[in-house]
C-alpha cells in the first residue's frame, strides 16, 4: 500500500498549455473538482496567465463575471449563478505583507468560496491548513515566441495598469503549469480526481513516495 490519506505529501502535476484558451480550459476542468474552502495560490511572473487561469475557474464554477485583473481593488467576489460556491479573486501584488492580508478579513470569505490569490505565494498560505499552488511559467523552448511587451519593465513603470492583458491583444504561447497540492484537504483520492479531470499529458511527482 502506498499510504493513502495519511500524509499530505506534496504531489505535483505538470501540464503544458498552448495558449490562453487552453489555459482557461484546464482551469475550467479543475473548477469541477473544487469546493468551498479551497484556496488556490497563483504564482508566476507578470503576464504568465494568472488572470487568464482565473477566468477559466470562473467559467467552470459558473460565477457572475467578468473575471478580470482586480486592478484597483485587491479582492473581488464573484457570486455563483449555479448554486455553488462564489469565487473570491484576490490580487496580492500591492500588499506589503502579512499585516495587510489580515486587514482584508479573507478568512471569513474562504469558508464559503473558492479563493484564488494572484501573487499569493508566501503571503496567504496561513489562511488555511491546505492550498493548491499553481505555478505558471513560459514553457521551455518558448523563448522564440514574442511576448506582447517587455513585461517586467512595463509593470515597474506602470504598476497600476493591467499591462499583460492590456489592449485586448491575445497571443498564444506555451505555458507550463505546475499544480502542487499541499495539506490535508488534498488527499490522494482528491488529487487523483483532479488528475482524471485534467487528463492528458500530466506528469506526476510526489515527494513522499510514488503513487501507483
Ligand atoms: N498559454 C497561455 N496561457 C495563458 N495566457 C497566455 C498563454 N499564451 C499567451 N497568453 C497571453 O498571456 C497573457 C496573460 O495575461 P494575464 O493577465 O492572464 O497574466 P497575469 O499572470 O494575470 O498577469 P499579471 O501579473 O499582470 O496579473 C494574455 O494576454 C494571454 O492572452
Ligand atoms: Mg493578473
Going by helix content, strand content and strand pairing, the class is alpha/beta
Provide the spatial order of strands within the biggest beta sheet: 3-4-5-2-6-7-1-8
The N- and C-terminal alpha carbons lie at a distance of 9 Å
Name the hetero compounds present.
adenosine-5'-triphosphate, magnesium ion
Instruction: Let me know the number of strands.
Output: 8
Mass-distribution shape: globular
H/I helix tally: 6
The share of residues in helices is: 25-40%
Order of secondary-structure elements: EHEHEEHHEEHEHE
Based on CA atoms alone, the radius of gyration comes out at 17 Å
- CATH topology title: Rossmann fold
Q: What proportion of the residues form beta strands (DSSP E)?
A: 15-25%
